[in-house]
């Protein structure tokens, strides 16, 4: 089974288990979410479901419109029932790295307004410690004028290496949906307390948001090479 098929089975299973009639549904971003929206559109059509979709990015909004789904706004729907989103890496505590696609800020806002955040991913995202599998580091969205001091402060606090994310089909940096830059922090120490790190980095002036999602995700679906899906839930402490 290809990686794409692994993404698809995870997405379909999550949508089948979590989307119900009249729900307010947060739509994540990335390539795996494309399959979730496809499945949602099929179910809305065949079961005549009423679902209001709240996007986490320009891409998500386009997907909702393309599939003829009901597009809502956070302003009028601040209480989201469930959000289904992708992730770049999920560790054994269900801490996530997100933002590989550059949409982390709106993704975190939507996740924070959701009763449940469900992750869908292929098996390559399932790891024990952050950095085991995802090698591009933690994305950090920053105000453009502050990217150099922010970079220096993070390095002096925790070490590692930081790159300003470059655009692919444009000269210069990636500019997010919110008009900001992204720093990718390749941390050197995998044994950090990610909650503390997230809180500390967020206090640096000019940092808008980090791609560390700590204590936010309650369940993850990982599509496997054999075609089955492994489900992992947060263990209550
Ligand atoms: O956080 C994200 C975008 O900001 C994505 O959800 C994450 O990068 C995973 O994407 P994909 O499903 O394409 O692997």
First and last CA, distance: 36 Å
Strand content: 25-35%
Mass-distribution shape: globular
CATH topology of the largest domain: Rossmann fold
What is the average per-residue confidence, as pLDDT, rounded to a whole number? 97
Second CATH tier, the architecture of the largest domain:
3-Layer(aba) Sandwich
Order of helices and strands: HEHEHEEEEHEEHEEHEEEE
Largest sheet: 7 strands, mixed
Organism: Bombyx mori (Silk moth)
EC number: 5.3.1.6
InterPro entries: NagB/RpiA_transferase-like, Ribose5P_isomerase_typA_subgr, Ribose5P_isomerase_type_A
GO biological process, one term: pentose-phosphate shunt, non-oxidative branch
In short:
By secondary structure, the chain is of the alpha/beta class.
Could you walk me through the main structural features you see in this protein, from its secondary elements to its overall organization?
It is built from six helices and 14 strands. The chain has 237 residues and is of the alpha/beta class. It folds into two domains: 3-126 and 214-226, 3-Layer(aba) Sandwich (Rossmann fold), CATH 3.40.50.1360; 138-210, Alpha-Beta Plaits (2-Layer Sandwich). It has a seven-stranded mixed sheet with strand order 3-2-1-4-7-13-14, sandwiched between helices. Strands 9-10-8-11 form a four-stranded antiparallel sheet. The structure holds ribulose-5-phosphate (5RP). Ribulose-5-phosphate binds at residues 28-32, 85-88, 98-104, 107.
């Amino acid at each position: 089974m290809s990686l794409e098929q692994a993404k698809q089975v995870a997405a379909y299973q999550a949508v089948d288990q979590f989307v119900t009639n009249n729900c307010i549904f947060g739509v994540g971003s990335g390539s795996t979410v494309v399959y979730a929206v496809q499945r949602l559109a099929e179910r809305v059509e065949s079961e005549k479901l009423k679902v209001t979709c709240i996007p986490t990015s320009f891409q998500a909004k386009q997907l909702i419109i393309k599939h003829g789904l009901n597009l809502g706004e956070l302003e009028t729907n601040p209480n989201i029932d469930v959000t289904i989103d992708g992730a770049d890496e999920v560790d054994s505590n269900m801490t996530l790295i997100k933002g590989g696609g550059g949409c982390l800020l709106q993704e975190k806002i939507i996740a924070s307004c959701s009763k449940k955040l469900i992750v869908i991913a292929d098996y390559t995202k399932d790891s024990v410690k952050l950095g085991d599998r995802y090698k591009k580091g933690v994305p950090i969205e920053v105000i453009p004028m502050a990217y150099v001091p922010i970079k220096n402060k993070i390095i002096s606090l925790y070490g590692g290496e930081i790159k300003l994310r470059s655009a692919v089909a444009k000269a210069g940096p990636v500019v997010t949906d919110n008009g900001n830059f992204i720093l990718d922090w390749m941390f050197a120490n995998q044994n950090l307390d990610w909650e503390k790190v997230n809180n500390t980095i967020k206090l640096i002036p000019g940092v808008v948001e980090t791609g560390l999602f700590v204590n936010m995700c309650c369940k993850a679906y990982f599509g496997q090479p054999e075609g089955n899906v492994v489900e992992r839930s947060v263990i209550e402490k």
